[in-house]
Amino acid sequence: RFSAHLIVSGSALSPAKNNDSKELKSSSRQKRISSARMLAMYLSRQYTGSAFSEIGEYFGGRSHSTAIAAERKVAQWLETDHGISLAHSVYPTKEVIRRIESNLRIG
What we know:
The protein is about 60% helix and about 5% strand. The protein is mainly alpha-helical. The chain has a two-stranded antiparallel ribbon with strand order 1-2. Strand 1 and strand 2 (about 90) form a beta hairpin. The longest helix has 18 residues, at about 30-50.
């Protein structure tokens, strides 16, 4: 079973390697950080089975509704093949998730 910590680690979020766990847990609203945070929340839900309240708490004491909104937003990105801003570049969401999943399997 994966943990949220593993998902937010630099090796798991390779396209966002400039994001560390402090940034993802911060109150920053910078697009590159908030996008990576939403993606990490989405993956935490998919791979850990943790409750939304636990995920929100892990990511800087956010509410369960923030984790729910993140999951819905990333699902929307996947449906529309939206580009996601990470580490000062834009990547297709599906490609980012594929890379992260690959890193999680290897790591």
